[in-house]
Amino acid sequence: MESFDLIVIGSGPAGEKGAAQAAYFGKRVALIECRAELGGAGINTGTVPSKTMRESALYFSGLRQRGLYGIDYSLREGLTVAGFMHRKDAVVSAERAKIAANLAAHKIELIPGAAQFEDAHTVNATGQHGAVRPLRSEVVLIATGSKPHRPPEIPFDDKFIFDSDSILTMERIPRSMVVVGGGVIGCEYASIFTAIGVAVTLVDGRDRLLSFLDAEISEQLRERLASLGLKFFFQERPKLTEHTASGIRMTFASGKSVEAETALFAAGRRGAVEGMALEKAGLGINPRGHIDVNEHYQTGVNHIYAAGDVIGFPALASTSMEQGRVAICHAFGFPYKQRLASQLPMGIYTIPEISAVGETEESCREKRIEFAVGRAKYANNARGQIIGDFAGMLKVIFRRDNKQLLGVQILGESATELIHLGMAVLEAGGTIDTFIELVFNFPTLSEMYKYAAYDGLGNLAGHKLREG
Predict the structure, then answer these.
(1) Is 90 exceeded by the pLDDT of residue 42?
(2) What's the whole-model pTM score?
(3) Which long-range contacts link 273-278 to residues 24+ away (Cβ below 8 Å)?
(4) φ and ψ of 227, to 5 deg
(5) What strands lie across the sheet with 247-252, from one edge to the other?
(6) Three-state DSSP class for 433?
(7) pLDDT band at 65, cuts 50/70/90?
(8) Cys-Cys crosslink for 125: which of 23, 113, 149, 269, Cβ 3.0 to 4.6 Å?
(9) Ramachandran quadrant class, 312 (left: phi over 0; alpha: psi -120 to 50; beta: rest)
């Protein structure tokens, strides 16, 4: 039986970075991957493909140019799936090659096959032809990711009724689509397909989009998507989904119904742990297939760690990478990366994109924090005018007593890039005075931090005057 210092199961963001971290410090590492492609959902079906499709949608629809030139660009004629997916395929291929090169550079042994525990220290890797290769290690990192949740009552056929993975294999661009789920994945795909001219109806059981977001930002997103033509059914749940001669018909619990050519169910994801015989290692899972871990990403078995989507929220590629690194540093006692930053950014690649970090107005009220708010609009920013984004907004939330920054919410072009400055000030415990003191390049969107801070100070002064 071959022995390693570390066995990693899964080559997604958590697995790749965890494996590389151990190998960097001289450990002998084996990485088991059951798929033919490296990169997990982050590269193949999730993060990278959907974000690349977003850029393709903006290109083919001319949405960016509409704001820039004031012209109603129409969708390029004859758009095919092959044309729409071309850029996505190229980017995914390049990212897979990068991961393969990274594993090779760190001398990590890549073992194709399905992983199954024999005991807490032994993992069998079964190749596609049935050959079993037993591996033993003192430390194991489970980074198998997640897969779409497929409710048994939904007749998925991956031709008319898709999940968030199989939608990437569609053979044609439909004229109409129903998207079930107003979470991150549902909103991203709904906005992408709306942008390229598909008549999209979004269905969600809650009363608003992305309920974890600041309510003001959530409502602004809904308004922007509605202006693009997206229709909404809130507080509705599908009761029956059936095939018709022209596509599908979805009937809701309320009795209402909607017809379309296709349907996309984006109703959450499950940990990808089937067939791993976790019970032989002394491990269990929760009802969503996720593995419970502590702050070091240790499971209930001390030498077995888990990171990434397989442990559940927040299930982001950015956090998964760092979780993998933190787990390995704890496992081997490396005095390097001991924890994740206390502030984790959220990036949502809808059209328009959104990014947020820290508290929202609602969370401040729940925690009884006395707060104030400052806003800056893209329309009042020179760079916002130049790029043609007139509806975006940057919002800062801060304490009334000492002006300490509590949260930042951004909706608009480059939101996911802009958020990092606010995150750095938040992590350092800084105040909104930091933004006022800084000198920003002109013209830049980043300058909105300064004017949001000024707006916040004005709101604070106005509150004190009213109180006095």
Answers:
(1) no
(2) 0.89
(3) 273/142, 273/144, 273/310, 275/114, 275/116, 276/9, 276/115, 276/116, 276/117, 276/142, 276/144, 277/116, 277/117, 277/118, 278/117
(4) -65, -25
(5) 238-244, 247-252, 257-260
(6) helix
(7) low
(8) 113
(9) left
